[in-house]
Amino acid sequence: MKWSVYMLRCFDGSFYTGCTNNLTRRLALHQNGKGAKYTRSRLPVTLAWYEDTDGKSEALRREAAVKRLSHAKKVSLTESCNPAALCDILRQPLK
Predict the structure, then answer these.
(1) Which helix (H) or strand (E) holds 66?
(2) Is the pLDDT of residue 85 over 80?
(3) Which domains, from first to last, does the chain contain?
């Protein structure tokens, strides 16, 4: 099963990193205030970066590695992301 690691940019400029097996659904939850407690108080949030992985364990390892990055390195990571890919994921229907 495909898992994704993702990073959201919160309204206050901070980042939230998580992983999921349904990125479109998880983004909708975050944006509607039903996601993580951290993001509920920092709405609106936008998808800044994501990466697909082969499985849950790989996603969890990658999530932990991204969380250890400094804010500056997270900014660099988001700048390296393909904007067209972000638009594609945001256009997908909820499942």
Answers:
(1) helix 56-67
(2) no
(3) 3-91 (3.40.1440.10)
